[in-house]
Specification:
218 residues, alpha/beta, DNA polymerase, domain 1, single chain, 9 helices
Length: 218
């Protein structure tokens, strides 16, 4: 059996931390009297923390100094960390463990490629840090998706070429990044939104072991 690099995004792919990001951002938005809905939250998927704040301020036409922005960014992160501190393995999304176990059993390199700076503590909380051969997160890269840097670094850490790398993503920016890097992109979520992905599944429960074996052997 061949070896490929399997690169996973974190938020919305392995665990649903998007809800905690939303609650933390909403708290900031509420203090600024900005209407911030779940629909607005979709705009923040795969986007850096700084850019996320800019989008929210734009929704309310709010001007702010750099000092104010930094204060809100720190506040958001503190609130978010308080939420994830309570996480456990029940937060792992359906079907993820079966896929990770299959890849482990077939000696495939498993890499995390996430914009999150909290990736390690989250993986520790949900008790699957040991499944990952390497982690590339917001602390390791300077360019946010759709720039492919996070995935390119991940492939390199797995000693694989970009063409031999498979990316699981739930955001448009992430799919774009994988495609730009000439990797095999697999969208997890609505096909109508992630229509640029090479393959699409609503969740990991739809991914068969035959499909995984085919990806490895291609």
């Amino acid at each position: 059996m061949k070896t490929k690099a399997f690169i996973f995004d974190l938020d919305g792919v392995i665990v649903d931390t998007a809800k905690y990001h939303y609650l933390a951002w909403k708290k900031i938005a509420d203090t600024l009297n900005i209407d911030f809905t779940h629909e607005h939250n979709e705009l923040l998927k795969g986007v850096s923390r700084v850019r996320s704040l800019e989008i929210i301020l734009g929704l309310g036409n709010v001007e702010a100094t750099e000092e104010q922005k930094n204060e809100w960014l720190n506040q958001k992160n503190e609130d978010y960390l308080a939420y994830i501190d309570k996480m456990d393995d029940s937060e792992i999304l359906p079907g993820v463990m079966r896929v990770l176990n299959f890849l482990k059993d077939h000696n495939q390199p498993i890499i995390l490629g996430s914009a999150s700076k909290n990736a390690r503590p989250i993986l520790e909380k949900v008790q699957i840090l040991n499944y990952f051969d390497d982690i590339v997160d917001g602390n390791d890269v300077s360019n946010a998706k759709p720039d492919p840097e996070v995935f390119i670094v991940g492939a390199r850490k797995a000693n694989q070429t970009n063409e031999n790398s498979i990316v699981f993503e739930d955001s448009v920016a992430g799919i774009e990044a994988a495609n730009t890097a000439k990797m095999t992109s697999i969208g997890i979520g609505e096909a109508s939104i992630l229509n640029e992905a090479k393959f699409n599944f609503n969740n990991f429960e739809e991914i068969s072991e035959d499909f995984l074996a085919e990806l490895i052997n291609q």
